[in-house]
Amino acid sequence: MTTSHTHPVHPAGVERAIAGTVPRADAQSLxxxxxxxADPVRLRVLFALASTEELCVGDLAMALxxxxxxxxxxxxxxxxxxxxxxxxxxxxxxxxxxxxxxxxLLDHCLRQLLTISDQENRT
Amino acid sequence: MTTSHTHPVHPAGVERAIAGTVPRADAQSLxxxxxxxADPVRLRVLFALASTEELCVGDLAMALxxxxxxxxxxxxxxxxxxxxxxxxxxxxxxxxxxxxxxxxLLDHCLRQLLTISDQENRT
DNA sequence: CGTACAACCGCACGATCGTACGGATATTCC
DNA sequence: GGAATATCCGTACGATCGTGCGGTTGTACG
Lengths: 123, 123
Description:
Order of helices and strands of chain A: HHHEHHEEH
Shape of chain A: elongated
Largest interface: A-B, 75 and 75 residues
Strand order of the largest sheet of chain A: 1-3-2
Helix content of chain A: 55-70%
Strand content of chain A: 5-15%
CATH topology of chain A: Arc Repressor Mutant, subunit A
Number of helices of chain A: 6
Number of domains of chain A: 1
Largest sheet of chain A: 3 strands, antiparallel
Radius of gyration of chain A: 20 Å
Number of strands of chain A: 3
CATH class of chain A: Mainly Alpha
CATH architecture of chain A: Orthogonal Bundle
Oligomer: homodimer
């Protein structure tokens, strides 16, 4: 199957599809955000931060029972994306959800998705 | 940095983190669902299907200006996950969002995430 | 039957990602 | 200054994923 689009349109419902189409750029940036969220470690980090305001790398690793590498790496990714922010106190870095973090993202979307994925896994 | 957890807890906010912890299995299945959504092609396919009820592989490819391989592959993934369902009519396969598909997922969550990712990209 | 067409499969390639390891950096305390 | 500690960096490895290509299946039509 090549990329040939000699395709004579069967239903003209294609028009509706084109009308409701998400631009490539938007889909791209949304996909990048979802990619960031689509990791078990990062998800658990977000939920952990949401329930305790502030945590350092080592304590987070302990709480989630993950390696400090994983904790540090996850926090770096989330920080780079602007979802969490850091504060230094001596030799300890404390991380928290960023100002303006959409808490509804966790409270509604993700918990709802959790329900969905639970349903799917029971099938 | 090894996996050493000789970590004496600094703040006992670790307790709160542990309390609000998402189980590994839940985080895993949620991450899998998010991984499925975290692709530009699949996202655009979902939005396209949401706006036109039913589409075949070729027409979808034409509407989104993607290859038929991409269209077919994306639909297969989404179908395997149970998010879309298929109907055969002659030699044409028509795809639609699955019965019980959480339309709010697109209408609320994803469009909201789109706004967020837009904000981040403007930074 | 044989051609035409839609959709799919098998495969391999390139790209991306998460992890683990060793070592580096920054900061505190003696 | 020097040891100890918390975090981070550079690197390499394995695993996963999306894409494109050729070929295959299933269906229609003359």
